[in-house]
Amino acid sequence: MNSKLGNTKALVLGLTLALGASASGLAIAQTDMAGSINSEQPVADTWITTQVKSELATTDGVKSMDISVTTVNGVVELTGTQESRVAVDKAIAVAKSTKGVSRVDSSGLKIVAATATKDVAGNGSDQPVADTWITTQVKSELATTDGVKSMDISVTTVNGVVELTGTQESRVAVDKAIAVAKSTKGVSRVDASGLKIVAATPTKDVAGNGSDQPVADTWITTQVKSELATTDGVKSMDISVTTVNGVVELTGKQESRMAVEKAITVAKNTKGVSRVDSSGLKIVGMMPRDVDGSDSDQPVTDTWITTKVKADLAATEGVKSMDISVTTVNGMVELTGKQDSRMAADKAVAVAKSIKGVRSVDSSGLSVPHMTAMDYDGEHSDQPLADTWITTKVKTELATTEGVKSSDISVSTLNGVVTLIGVLDSKVAVDKATAVTRSVKGVHSVDAAGLKVR
């Protein structure tokens, strides 16, 4: 007896250890979930599952809601039902084409035989129609019914009784859905008690166009998601959007403050949104153990460098950070876009060079469209200098001129004519300011009539 008890305990202990090791192995996610092109690491099973589901949802002819997807060590298992061999083959092809998939097991993906006991719809038969067939037929009809949002309705059938649950935007849509279900062969009764009308429904159209009625929360959520998906720099797949009474809640994560602010702006600009709650939208930069690499021997990642450069540009006076695109590959930063002056472009380059982990900065794609001179100070060029540059240069020179309080002088330039306005302590100071301005390259004349002595 003691011997058997001891063997049992040993068996339980062995199984526990084996299961623990298996679980810990499955929990190891890759640093880059999608297994980037430049990595030989396997793609995480979780990412594969999500990607396959996403692709199935947009594949024409495939009923993705009827397919369950699981992935273990790169092997994707598809289970569920589809209505045709074509749909099954499409689903398998989608799974096989997903990065990181080593094999697809579709043995559990069945073709729904349109299963009345003698024929699909029970035509020519007195036998009852199968519940599975009824559910499929109702879903199919709802999908082609004008004015009904079939994706927002769940259909189940038990012993010929069809239950509809979900939401629609109007009583007309609900009634249409019920009528479709009732008209389906084999249906004995329809329970639509769980099919609700979205409260915030406009009376004329969903988006509120041509109507003073509030926009439906469902529409707002859909619109925000759609706009986020096309917003550059925002990872929309990492943001969850919900709307209640016009208040949009954004939760999830982004890799930079800029991405978060873009997402918030998109939501705020959507029609019908009264407020945006982004308290649950966190910044999770892909960075080394220590944010700026201090006290750490770990290399700084390209993603972190890009995020840091963008953040510092946003805080740099005189630089229009929203007009600069930043990319980093192996520590080499590329700046593209435009700035209003060479000074701003140079500041942007200096900011990038100062970031830890940056090996070089390529700013050949950062243009200064308003600067017609070849270089910063106009040397080696007969072209006129931009008024913006002249104004900046005059201000800089005045700031370093002894006896002149540059903070008391307003400087503006139009077609090379500089206007000085303000109040100084003496005529000497006024003359100095005027002389300094005249000495700046590109200045045609100086109007100092507005520069007074106290």
Write the layout of secondary structure elements.
Layout: H1 2-26, H2 45-57, E1 67-72, E2 75-82, H3 85-97, E3 103-111, H4 131-143, E4 153-158, E5 161-168, H5 171-183, E6 189-197, H6 217-229, E7 239-244, E8 247-254, H7 257-268, E9 275-283, H8 302-314, E10 324-329, E11 332-338, H9 342-353, E12 360-367, H10 387-399, E13 409-414, E14 417-424, H11 427-438, E15 445-453
Parallel strand pairs: 2-3, 5-6, 8-9, 11-12, 14-15
Antiparallel strand pairs: 1-2, 4-5, 7-8, 10-11, 13-14
List the main descriptive attributes of the protein structure presented here.
454 residues, alpha/beta, 5 domains, three-stranded mixed beta sheet, 11 helices, 15 strands, 33% helix
Protein described:
- The protein folds into 5 domains: 45-111; 131-197; 217-283; 302-367, Histidine-containing Protein, Chain: A (2-Layer Sandwich); 387-453.
- The chain has 11 helices and 15 strands.
- Strands 1-2-3 form a 3-stranded mixed beta sheet. A 3-stranded mixed beta sheet has the order 4-5-6. A 3-stranded mixed beta sheet has the order 7-8-9.
- It has 454 residues and is of the alpha/beta class.
- Helix 9 (342-353) links the parallel strand 11 and strand 12 (360-367).
